[in-house]
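To the wet lab folks,

You asked to see what we're planning to order before we commit. Fair enough. Below is the target structure as tokens, and below that is the sequence we designed to fit it. If anything looks off to you, flag it before the synthesis order goes out.
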């Protein structure tokens, strides 16, 4: 019986100590979480974090834990979760502004540019570098929204004097110029061109190989159809067979040329957006993660 009570006392005491250690999260625990994150042991980070509730901690520790967990989600490209966690970081915490900038970037990357813009708009900043970073991020959002007039206004605040920003400021100017100079190709014109000369509509959209292939295929089918028509007449089964195939390819060539214009626009916009988002990402890390 005595052994039973001793065992019971040992177990309950160990649980109490474990609970106490989780409630009183130490600086060593925080250092260990930072180490796991720095060494990209994200799964181990989540496992360790599972045993602590940030709400049970002091103000500083709670916000540090939320910041670290948000960073873990960010590094794993779970950007919506990262944004939510960064937004939970309280004003007064040393990394509050940084958390707001990362949250805004995550929202922009998640196609929530308006929410990102509102978040940045609400930030009141005095530090000149961070203030310029805010203008830079808002300029990036303006490009993502294709608001070129707004970008021009914000880009006037680029000083090109801060190493953390200057390179990406120049890139945003380049993306602005590309968007300004971009001439959307016409779907109607592409269709008409391919109706007159098969494949020319695709060449017009930059798909030279596809255009030449379409021209050769339709040309061969048209030639075979015409030869059979001349030799055997319209009612001959070969004329009907090759004529049907020719018609399918010919009409498909017109439709495909029109679709290729849409794809051309999408590819251009996706490439530009990826470049803008990448440029928006770098200065935040340069400024805050020194």
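Sequence we intend to order:
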């Amino acid at each position: 019986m005595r052994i039973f009570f001793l065992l019971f006392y040992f177990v309950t005491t160990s649980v109490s100590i474990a609970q106490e250690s989780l409630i009183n999260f130490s600086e060593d625990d925080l250092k260990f979480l930072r180490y796991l994150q720095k060494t990209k042991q994200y799964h181990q980070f989540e496992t360790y974090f599972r045993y602590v509730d940030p709400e049970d901690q002091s103000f500083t520790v709670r916000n540090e834990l939320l910041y670290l967990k948000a960073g873990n989600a960010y590094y794993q490209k779970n950007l919506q979760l990262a944004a939510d966690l960064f937004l939970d970081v309280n004003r007064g915490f040393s990394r509050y502004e940084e958390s707001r900038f990362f949250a805004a970037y995550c929202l922009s990357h998640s196609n929530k540019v308006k929410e990102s813009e509102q978040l940045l708009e609400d930030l009141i900043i005095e530090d000149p570098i961070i203030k310029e970073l805010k203008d830079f991020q808002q300029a990036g959002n303006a490009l993502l929204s294709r608001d070129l007039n707004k970008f021009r206004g914000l880009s006037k605040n680029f000083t090109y004097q801060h190493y953390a920003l200057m390179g990406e400021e120049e890139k945003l100017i380049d993306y602005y110029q590309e968007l300004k100079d971009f001439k959307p190709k016409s779907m109607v014109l592409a269709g008409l061109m391919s109706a007159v000369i098969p494949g020319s509509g695709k060449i017009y959209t930059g798909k030279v190989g596809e255009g030449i292939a379409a021209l050769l295929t339709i040309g061969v089918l048209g030639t075979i159809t015409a030869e059979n028509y001349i030799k055997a007449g319209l009612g001959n089964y070969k004329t009907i067979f090759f004529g049907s195939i020719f018609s399918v390819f010919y009409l498909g060539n017109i439709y495909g040329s029109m679709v290729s214009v849409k794809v051309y626009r999408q590819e251009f916009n996706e490439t530009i957006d990826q470049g803008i988002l990448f440029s928006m990402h770098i200065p935040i890390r340069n400024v805050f993660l020194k």
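Structural context that might help your review: Residues 1-22 have pLDDT under 50 and may be disordered. The CA atoms of residues 150 and 230 lie 64 Å apart.

Thanks,
Computational group
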